[in-house]
Amino acid sequence: MRKTISKEFGDRKPRAIVLDDNARARQMTGRHLRRRGFETIECATTEQFLDKWLPGTVDVVIADWQLSSDPKKHGDKILEAVRMRDWDVPFVLVSGKLDEDSERIKILQGLLNKGGAAFVQRGEGGIKKACESAEDLMERRDLALLKLILSLRNAAMDGEKIRTSSGEQSVAKLLESIVSNPKTSHDAERPIAQKLGQP
Amino acid sequence: MARQPRSVTYLVSGDEDIRPSHEVLRKTNRLVRYDAEVHEDAAVELKAGHGFVVVAHGSASGTVTWFNSIKNSESNWLWVGMPTPPRGSHIYVYACNAGKKLAQFLVNCEVLGHVDVVPMPLGNLEPAVTSFLDKVDSLLRDPSLNPQNWADELARFVNNSLAEKGLNPDSAWEDVATMLLLRRSMGYADT
Question: pTM for this one?
Fold first, then answer.
């Protein structure tokens, strides 16, 4: 893993989630990420993915474009679902049939234009490229926001709660409220560090 | 001649889930009236010219409720449309959600409150919440400041605390969570 990324995580490992119904591709991607210093979560279906993914607790998503178990839910739909709850977690979409489908190219181009996402064509060196794209995207994150996320992550994953004057609030929900709202947490022009008066 | 600083009294509702905030606040040498010690008529309790921090349950409709453990009952204490609202007092409403509408209604008082949930000064949240309330106290005491000044200063305080604690990997998560909750409950005043 690049030093620019690992220094932000200190003793922790960045967390990656891999969604791919091809067991071999999923395992190889997971292995490659672990070798680079990531902690990985592997999912074969969208249900597994939505069950295991908690906003703010994952640093990158690598997803296959087309899951045979869920043919109506292409990768761009997964990205849409993720963006509803996490505004800029890096997202790498992997596609094996790019040349055959011009409609897909258009959609993928649109994803690139939105930022925070990349696509990689399967094939020779595809897994390595996907991992490198993941690190490219991670390097571009708002580092102040990332620090806030990391400071709450373990508490969110441990199910910690906070007492408020309206009962208990879960730290996981608090974390989601930060990462799901670009206007109030972060955006490309006004990173949270600026809002907090940091250079 | 400079005006005298105002007194600040904490009024803490007797709700079970707010308890023992009153003890924590008393330990920090604050003047605290709690539960049934507080007059059931807010207009009587909230005397003109004095500063108050109200710690109670609130709702987005602008209602603050009070639990009296002797009567074992919860009732509206401050609300939009109350027939005899307080006058001339300076009130910080440390209750969930009620701040916006209540401040608009209590036109004869100086009022600031929150628009989302607020953390209680309990357990590991205590240091961060009491540091925020220290700032609230100092602003309320100063007779030269108005609620807009309070809001601006508190937003600055929370942002500075968040920058200090949130960007330091050694900070306790409770400190960061408290400041994030407070920042949200003040309506992200900097956006």
Answer: 0.87
